[in-house]
Amino acid sequence: MKTFGCQMNVYDSERMSEALAAEGYVETSEPAEADLAILNTCHIREKAAEKVYSDLGRLRDIKRERARDGKETLITVAGCVAQAEGDEIVRRAPVVDLVLGPQSYHRLPELLARMRRGETSIVETAFPDEDKFQALPDRRPPRAVSAFLTVQEGCDKFCTFCVVPYTRGMEYSRPVAALVAEARRLVERGVREITLLGQNVNGYHGDGPDGAPTALAGLIRHLAEIEGLSRIRYTTSHPRDMSDDLIQAHRDEEKLMPYLHLPFQAGADRVLAAMNRKHTAGEYLDLIGRIREARPDIALSTDIIVGFPGESDADFEETLKLVEEARFAHAFSFKYSPRPGTPAATMDEQVPEDVKRERLARLQDTIDAGYRRFNGQFVGQTLPVLLEKTGRYEGQLVGRSPYLQLVHADADPARVGEIVEVEIRSAGANSLSGVICGSA
Ligand code: SAH
Ligand code: SF4
Ligand code: F3S
């Protein structure tokens, strides 16, 4: 199993592995040993989508070599490239046995049986009515103290640059009761932190226990009642769906971590309008002002695109200005990549590659300076850190602060899963390190 793209794919890969474990499969990191290879793919930018075909080239060679030893190799392309390209994949790469869209993962065992009977070039990309998550087997023990939980899928926002509404379909929210039950099982097995996932997670509106529609803040309140669950996070949010209720949850709900990923994409209003983002730069700044009023220490992160069609130098300066004003703790930045089937791909005034590259470099310098400023303020302070795993050096553990910073500290590996107080001694661009001074 090889996973590309966002955390939702990570979650889906775990659930597929679980379904396959029930069929007797075990995971391997060695492609030459695999009887079944699954590429769980991402279509968001051209580079991500093209990686799939180079991997398929390698798998074709492996399949040939294994066939010489009398071994069968089944090859599956899952995820968003599967959904977006469908038949085109088997045409371009006939070695593929199964193309499996993200809404059909629960059918994997049945499709596997068909492949074993010799069927090839199966393409399964419909959006079925049944809930794939309910149809997937119960979750096996997690490997980590922090786990993902997909609560919402799909997106109805149709930003003009983005493939997600086409690859993941319309918005769908899982019911509260199913999510609470899944979260309880995770916590029983040692998970202490859960990150709620959705392409548009703050648009969540699942059926509540009483049948009434429940928003994300309500879901968070239900989950916060689970004893043993210490930390709740959620990602990714759209500025338009950041309700007052959710902002207040950041003030009132102790288990909800002070971190928010809130993409703004571009700083100039005319670019935002062409992107169909449904917010202006001023509205975005006003929104984060209200969020900081409710939770002054909250760490904000964002996504930014440079070189959207028609973006001028002056427009780009607006993006830099917004980054300075918003004081982000973290940011992901991308060169605009035209995606087939999206409105922006055929807009006039596509920005030349060298201009995009130059803007991205300038933006990343500004973002990096922000990381250092954000992390630097914690030196000398004490932070509660959830210890997640062993670090690169002997005797070292790595965990996360409430603000999602990586924190290194020396500790016994038996302490993984504990929340400890760490006095921060030094800060880099990407992590903090310190000394454990107590239990939280
Ligand atoms: N649902 C999330 C994530 C969408 S994809 C959201 O709404 O933010 C993650 C990020 O990829 C987006 O926020 C955007 O910054 C970037 N992205 C999406 N389409 C892109 C494209 N065509 N070119 C470059 N970056 C893109
Ligand atoms: Fe894509 Fe926009 Fe939906 Fe995010 S909100 S998934 S960027 S269409
Ligand atoms: Fe990529 Fe699909 Fe996620 S396109 S970013 S894997 S929703």
Q: What tags apply to this protein structure?
A:
alpha/beta; 3 domains; binds S-adenosyl-L-homocysteine; binds iron/sulfur cluster; binds FE3-S4 cluster
Task: Write a concise synopsis of the structure shown.
The chain is of the alpha/beta class. The protein is 36% helix and 22% strand. It is built from 14 helices and 20 strands.
Structure explained in plain terms:
This protein has 440 residues and is an alpha/beta fold. The chain has helices at residues 7-21, 46-68, 79-85, 87-92, 108-116, 132-135, 164-167, 176-188, 216-224, 244-252, 269-274, 281-294, 313-326, 353-376; strands at 2-3, 36-41, 74-78, 98-100, 122-124, 146-150, 152-153, 172-173, 193-197, 205-207, 213-215, 231-235, 259-261, 299-306, 330-335, 382-390, 396-400, 406-410, 419-427, 431-439. It is globular. The protein starts with a strand and ends with a strand. The structure holds S-adenosyl-L-homocysteine, iron/sulfur cluster and FE3-S4 cluster.
What's the mean pLDDT score? 95
User: What is the CATH first-level class name of the largest domain?
Assistant: Alpha Beta
Shape: globular
CATH fold type of the largest domain: pyruvate-formate lyase- activating enzyme
What kind of sheet is the major sheet? 5 strands, parallel
Distinct small molecules: S-adenosyl-L-homocysteine, iron/sulfur cluster, FE3-S4 cluster
What is the strand content? Answer: 15-25%
Question: Please, how many domains?
Answer: 3
CATH H level, superfamily name of the largest domain:
tm_1862 like domain
Count of DSSP-assigned helices: 14
Which CATH architecture of the largest domain is right?
A: Alpha-Beta Horseshoe
Distance between the termini: 37 Å
Q: Radius of gyration, Cα only, in angstroms? A: 23 Å
- Low-confidence stretches are none
- Numbering strands along the chain, what is their spatial order in the largest sheet? 1-2-3-4-5
Structural class: alpha/beta
Total beta-strand segments: 20
Helical amount among residues, as a percent range? Answer: 25-40%
